[in-house]
Amino acid sequence: MTGRFVDNLIYSLKKEKHFQNLKYLDTAFGKIRLFDSGENKPVIINVPDAPNTIEHQSELIQELTKHFRVVCFEYPGVGFSYPNQKFNYSIQHGTDLIFQVMDILKINSASLIFSCSNGYYALNAAMVSSQKFKHIFISQTPSVNAIAEWTKKSIPNILKVPIIGQLSNKVLVKKLANIWYDVALPRDADYKSEFKSKASQSLNQGACFCLSSLVQGLNNEKHRKLILNNTNVSLIWGGKDFSHRKTSKESIKEHVPHCEIIEFEDCGHFPELENHQKFVKLVQERLS
């Protein structure tokens, strides 16, 4: 059981927000906020890891668009993609949404840049239809078993309780976001305040950060069989992510035995954002 219907009710009452250079796609899981650079170039699809929003991805997007068509969208429960009653945060639904976005935008082939639990959506999509994906780039995505252990230790127990978790999440959302950045980013990072500021601004404007529903939705995925053999996968791991200090990055090889693992030693939970220039250089090298 999950209490995600609480989020559905709360956000069904909010009006759609409009932002310059961004649009919404109508999907089976609700309206998805999206950026699309639209050029006739190889496609990269990227998603923010909440409480990050598309605004947090701006420098990464700007650098990537020099070489690629970039599509960046927010999953339901993230930013201004308000969740509907159909999306249950499962790996299957996360995968289905990737294919829906590609179908709507008439994208036949892409590389994916996904992080943390979103990485399982990317891996499963490539397992379902490997010919559609040239390369999968994931960051801070250990094995499903490892993330389950991480969740036990790192997520407040109250958020794991249906209904109570969703209500607590809503009341404490700004505090949860700030605490997350404090433990996920390097302790001495001068850019921590910028991450917090962008998240605070988005939340003040009505953005969602449905952490409780995500945790409850992924709770049933602990025994999912996820084996990928035919797609190139690179895991970029931030070495100063305090939240994952005891998590084995090598555990991803339970799902991707051939996975390339690169550590960004000075980065935290968002290496693709914290050192976007180094990350984009890596992407270019792997896709050349």
Characterization of the model:
This protein has 288 residues and is α/β, with parallel strands linked by helices. It has one domain (4-287): Alpha/Beta hydrolase fold, catalytic domain (Rossmann fold). It contains eleven helices and ten strands. It has helices at 4-12, 58-64, 91-104, 118-128, 144-154, 164-171, 173-184, 192-204, 211-218, 271-274, 276-287, and strands at 23-27, 30-36, 43-46, 69-73, 78-79, 110-115, 133-139, 208-209, 232-238, 260-264. The strands form two sheets. Strands 1-2-4-3-6-7-9-10 form an eight-stranded mixed sheet, sandwiched between helices. The protein has a two-stranded antiparallel sheet with strand order 5-8. Helix 3 (91-104) crosses helix 4 and helix 7 runs antiparallel to helix 8 (192-204). It is globular, with a radius of gyration of 17 Å.
